[in-house]
Amino acid sequence: MGFGMGCCCLQMTFQAQDITEARYLYDQLTPLTPIVLAMSAATPVFRGYLTDVDCRWSVISGSVDDRTREERGLEPLKNDRFVINKSRYDTIDSYLSECSAPFNDIPLVYDEELLQMLLDAGIDETLGRHMAHLFIRDPVVLYGEKVDIDDEEDSDHFENIQSTNWQNMRFKPPPPNSSIGWRIEFRPTEIQLTEFENAAFVVFVVLLTRVIATFKLNFLMPISQVDANLRTAQNRDAVLRERFHFRQDLISCDSPLQAQECCGGRPCEQEGAKVALMSIDEIVNGKAGEFAGLIPLINSYLGTIEADVDTHCSIRQYLKFISLRASGKLRTTARWIRDFVTQHPLYQQDSVVSSAINYDLVKLMVALSEGDEHIPNFSYSARTKTVDSLPPSVLADNPRLKDDSVLQ
């Protein structure tokens, strides 16, 4: 477990208005997880070897896979209760909203006794199956002082299982006796070298949550295709070479007119989904006459909100970076690392990343992170009007903020 969990990533948690919105956003963001994983690919080297994958996902999945031979279906069940199809670090097995249930097309293994207890308590079957599915696994670790606790006051027993099911999305109920609300966690993104790049991915996903919630979009497709996409996303140069299953008819019957216009006026689809194979560039930047594109949808949403010019300029820079990464005009971190290693004078064409190569790589990474180096077709030169002081427009609307003591 220690080896796999040594891989860095960028995880984002969003708080929803209520449980209904949390379940909706959980489902709608799930098909986007492979797309963001491919764009953020940054892990082509493991334990001193250049590998044929660009991402950490399958490596961590294997390193924390604690299923027994019986649980993997290699031997008949005798001591264990379930045959479990995936590692505890993998993609989700089901959507959460009841209206999303028709797209749950892979078998879901769950504890039937626990499901019945949840049903008796008034939990709907779709959410109940999700919770009962989490509890088919044993705890990874349990501290002595946490064995005997009051489950009416403390959620540690639940979190012990919940937090060790490491999936591409996580549904997070409020802790007891807390003002924290219903949350979802978006978990696939790989860490980037600079603060700007990491901020760009965060802003991109945050804005997608607002677009989805405001425009009432529908990204749902069979969850088996999400699984296939996540496997594809880890392939070498997936952002350039691969095509991904993605829904084309995003408009729902609740979508406002502006969303319909942005998506070409396509009517809502009551059943099924029109899914096509598309490149990352087509998904993110759009394809004329066929698909609006995620960034054009975000731009349409930005036209509906009030924000000062400085904020808009910063957002545009982030979206420009994402657009260039999706189109292949800027290399992924994985591709840049791969190029650096294979072009290093000490590389022997044997996949070995020696200590000397590793030292030079890390040294250059530090320089890039600190803004001391710029590499063509990889580094992004961000130009922004953002400054440490508050914009004049904000100060004009809030005169009290001119007093520095208010900000301390």
What does this structure look like?
This protein is mainly α and 408 residues long. Helix content is 39%, strand content 7%. It is built from 16 helices and 9 strands. The strands form 4 sheets. The chain has a 3-stranded antiparallel β-sheet, covered by helices on one side. A two-stranded antiparallel sheet has the order 2-3. It has a two-stranded parallel sheet with strand order 4-5. α4 crosses α5, α7 crosses α12 and α7 packs across α13. The longest helix is centred in the middle third of the chain and has 21 residues. The relative contact order is 0.14.
Keywords for this entry:
408 residues, mainly alpha, three-stranded antiparallel beta sheet, 16 helices, 9 strands, globular
